[in-house]
Amino acid sequence: MRRRIVLVVPGDAPSDRLDHYIGTHAPDMSRTRAKEIMSSGLVTLNGEIVKPSHTVVPGDRIEVDLPELERLSAAPENIPLDICYEDEHLLVINKHAGMVVHPAPGSYSGTLVNALVGRGVRLSSVGGSLRPGIVHRLDRDTSGLIVVAKTDESHRRLTAMFEAREIRKTYLALTWGVMGESAGTITGPIGRRRSDRKRMGVVSDGRPATTGWRVREQFPYAAFTEIDLKTGRTHQIRVHMSHIHRPVIGDADYGGVRRSFGDVPPNYRRQAERINNRATHQALFARRLEFTHPMTEACVELATPIPDDFAYLLSLLRYPKGETGRVLGIDPGEARIGVALSDENRSLAASLDTLEGLEDSAAAKRISEIADENGVDTIVVGYPIRMDGSIGHRAMRSRELVVRLEDTSRCRVVLHDERLSSAEAERVMKEKGERKRGRKGRVDQIAASIILQGYLDAQAIQR
Prior knowledge:
Blueprint: E1 3-8, E2 16-17, H1 18-25, H2 31-39, E3 43-45, E4 55-56, E5 61-66, E6 83-86, E7 90-95, H3 112-119, E8 143-149, H4 152-163, E9 168-176, E10 183-187, E11 190-192, E12 200-202, E13 210-218, E14 222-229, H5 236-243, H6 269-278, E15 284-292, E16 299-303, H7 308-318, E17 326-332, E18 336-342, E19 349-356, H8 360-373, E20 376-383, H9 393-408, E21 412-417, H10 421-432, H11 439-462
Parallel strand pairs: 8-15, 17-20, 20-21
Antiparallel strand pairs: 1-5, 2-4, 3-5, 6-7, 7-8, 9-14, 9-15, 10-13, 11-12, 13-14, 15-16, 17-18, 18-19
Helix pairs in contact: 1-2, 8-9, 10-11
């Protein structure tokens, strides 16, 4: 069964695109959803199926057949969310790989929308009962930052900003092959393939799409790539990288899962095969979002650390024989940053230094220098989660430091729970009888060593 919506364009209506007209005038409908329904052949204009860009004129009769799913609503579910920003108008969430954004055939539960509804907060109604607050999407297996609207007005403004390309989205990817140049731009219209309507491709009648890229690190058979989306087409990065024969590692739909390695230098083929086997999904995530707040006009700049599965593949590329260097431990306090260093066997932690009076960028640079000086390949940053498991200001600062360290060093950077490290450091110093006056800087160093030792012990247990 389907629910039919009939719209007749009034005589005084200005000219408009069909998808925009439906998204504006049909109840519980967005322009994005209108395009999705049109791609399934469920919209007719005067009895004919036309493109979303077709211009409507007064007197046109539009018929929309909504699938049965549209009559449902997303059930609330208690699913933890990694919230990077929230105010009364919007949220920005770090979505994990494997999570679908909204309910759809085959994914009726466990979605981001189910988790949002489960939080009990107000969400925009523009997207309808199955897509409340959803302004844009990320693929199921693409992790990273996604914006959610709480109010209808913020939803409409954010949608307009995305369409006007006023929201900058930066991704990180691991791609097969040698790029040849340090940076470039890919252009090519993207649309559904005639031979397989479930997959996208660069096709002559597709929508214009532009993708900018630059190489952060080049390996003998793969690259660590930063990608700047100029447009926002379905599967754009995956399609464009495949189009230039540099598919995203692990992308089964667009050539990122290899069957042969004849083009890989012989001495690297076993490593490439290992990377191929360990990539369970596309190595792609939305690293950064930059936009002007739609309601307050404040500048919003957010970035999220590299997820563990991506970091693991990157580490295999950097260190084919495994991580064998020392490990650095960091306790990021408000005024000081404690630093600790492991021994060569990666089993014991010792206090090293205290950094004072440094902003995050300068601190990241100095920590990276210390890592280089001591043969470090892994940096462990204390993550001061609150006792109830929630994330506060100090935890967000740790995440920001991790992002800066990932941008300035070649080390794998790990967040490690440090909820009790400072208290334990104070206890240790009291037992040693150290005077309180000179204790502040030492507390940070000892806290860093406690954080690092906890990480080293956990790794030893896993081994």
